TrEMBL record:
Organism the protein comes from: Sphingomonas suaedae
Catalytic activity as recorded in UniProt: oxaloacetate + acetyl-CoA + H2O = citrate + CoA + H(+)
Gene Ontology molecular function: any one: citrate synthase activity
Pfam families: Citrate_synt (PF00285)
Keyword Transmembrane helix among record annotations: yes
PANTHER family per the UniProt record, alphabetical: CITRATE SYNTHASE (PTHR42871:SF1)
Keywords tagged on the record: Acyltransferase, Membrane, Transferase, Transmembrane, Transmembrane helix, Tricarboxylic acid cycle
Involved pathway(s): Carbohydrate metabolism; tricarboxylic acid cycle; isocitrate from oxaloacetate: step 1/2
Protein name: Citrate synthase
Active site positions: 302, 359
Length: 424
């Protein structure tokens, strides 16, 4: 909806209102009319698309999926329900949810040939490296769902990605510990099946612990989507050229891996373990504040949340619940709580509005469940696949969609004549 304009130079540009949140100035004609580009590295003031999926109010600590607050979804729904909601706009009825869960379960197996890909990796390969490679390789297998102009094929590719990601992730883990791969068991829930494929062994029956299953499902819900973050924007940009959907998700996984993004959960737990005990916290706080030291408190700070990250609130409580239920007394949780307390009373962190983010407590829970730190970002990628495919579908069905092609402020040499090497 347009109801006002903003004057830039001597031209008026339409200002568009969303349903909630900041308005945007539509500058699509700005270059044609002014001969200038806008400059916004890091996209701090740029809306790259129109979306109806996820809304974040960073100042108020609000995160909504299709209007539903994340804490309500985390406490009351399931990951399959949230996946349906993100893909299909509305929460499912009981029948719709059953049908959706059944459809996903029918795609959990990988093409047998794909298992061979794992054997090409070193046993000590990072599981994110394996995941990037194997998900990219899916594009060489499922040719009947890659006509992106067909909504039906797009939905099949989306279901395949959501369904196969737990199998791919569990196989990456099994490969690293030298245990046999387990085929999916579709009598289990999405999350229960993933836990069995990860921690089960063929020699024994695996019984899914309901506490662990619920905690894992909650972690998946909390990571399902997060608006136009770096990896989602990567998926959209890759997809904007009409690229194969599986290859686009592999691009998202590559972006997520970085320590400033999804890789922070691994880095956060490693940091907490390195700190080791609450007495050492001041030393690390001092390092985080020292401009000459590149060290940052991992799991702290966020580009958008400047009050609190609502996902961190849910996980902070879940961390205590899970450790209590499993009877685990991990000093890392005490270190995390004390670090949060000290940092949040320090003017440096208060002034810069740095709060724990989703990655701060998730590692404590994942570690209690039994995952090595290298698997943390893999679990994030598994859950975020839902958001990536929903955002990708939304982009492809948007009539305004164009190939993503940013411009630049060029500061290199101006034109000059080539000099043969013998004369240089
Ligand atoms: N520890 C110490 N100082 C910090 C931290 C931190 N974790 N985060 C930001 N700062 C400081 C910066 O040094 C900077 O200070 P300055 O203004 O004096 O230069 C200021 O706060 C602003 O930081 P920017 O890096 O400019 O903020 P930006 O929005 O670009 O970065 C980011 C956000 C990348 C998340 C950053 O806070 C960070 O590196 N955090 C640690 C990594 C992390 O936890 N990432 C996970 C994010 S959540 C997710 O992806 C799921």
């Amino acid at each position: 909806m347009t109801d006002s304009t903003l004057k830039l130079g001597d031209k008026d540009y339409p200002v568009r209102k969303g349903s909630v949140g900041p308005e945007v100035v539509d500058i699509r004609k700005f270059y044609a009319q002014s001969g200038m580009f806008t400059y916004d590295p890091g996209f701090t003031s740029t809306a790259s698309c129109e979306s109806g999926l996820t809304y974040i109010d960073g100042d108020a600590g609000v995160l909504l999926h299709r209007g539903y607050p994340i804490d309500q979804l985390a406490e009351q729904s399931s990951f399959m329900e949230v996946a349906y909601l993100l893909l299909n706009h509305e929460l499912p009825s009981k029948d719709e949810l059953d049908k959706f869960s059944y459809t996903i379960s029918r795609h959990t197996m990988l093409h047998e040939q794909l298992a061979q890909f794992y054997r090409g990796f070193r046993r000590d390969a990072h599981p994110m490296a394996i995941m990037c490679g194997v998900v990219g390789a899916l594009s060489a297998f499922y040719h009947d769902s890659t006509d992106i102009t067909d909504p039906q094929q797009r939905m099949i590719a989306s279901h395949r990605l959501i369904a196969k990601m737990p199998t791919i992730a569990a196989m990456a883990y099994k490969y690293s510990v030298g245990q046999p791969f387990l085929y999916p068991d579709n009598s289990l829930s999405y999350t229960g099946n993933f836990l069995r494929m990860t921690f089960g062994v063929p020699a024994e029956e695996y019984v899914v612990d309901p506490v662990v299953e619920a905690a894992m499902d909650k972690i998946f819900i909390l990571h399902a989507d997060h608006e136009q973050n770096a990896s989602t924007s990567t998926v959209r940009l890759a997809g904007s050229s009409g690229a194969n959907p599986f290859a686009c998700i592999a691009a998202g996984i590559a972006c997520l891996w970085g320590p400033a993004h999804g890789g922070a959960n691994e880095a956060a737990l490693n940091m907490l373990r390195e700190i080791g005990r609450p007495e050492r916290i001041p030393e690390y706080i001092a390092r985080a504040k020292n401009k000459d030291d590149p060290f940052r408190l991992m799991g702290f700070g966020h580009r958008v949340y400047k009050n609190f990250d609502p996902r961190a609130k849910v996980l902070s409580k879940a961390a205590s619940d899970v450790l209590d239920s499993l009877g685990i007394n991990d000093p890392v949780l005490d270190t995390a709580r004390e670090l949060e307390r000290i940092a949040l009373s320090d003017p440096y962190f208060i002034d810069k509005k740095l709060y724990p983010n989703v990655d701060f407590y998730s590692g404590v829970i994942l570690s209690a469940i039994g995952f090595p730190t290298t698997m943390f970002t893999v679990l994030f990628a598994l859950a975020r696949t839902v958001g990536w495919v929903a955002q990708w579908n939304e982009m492809i069905s948007d009539p305004d969609q164009k190939i993503g092609r940013p411009r630049q402020l060029y500061t290199g040499p101006t034109q000059r004549d080539y000099v043969p090497v013998s004369q240089r």
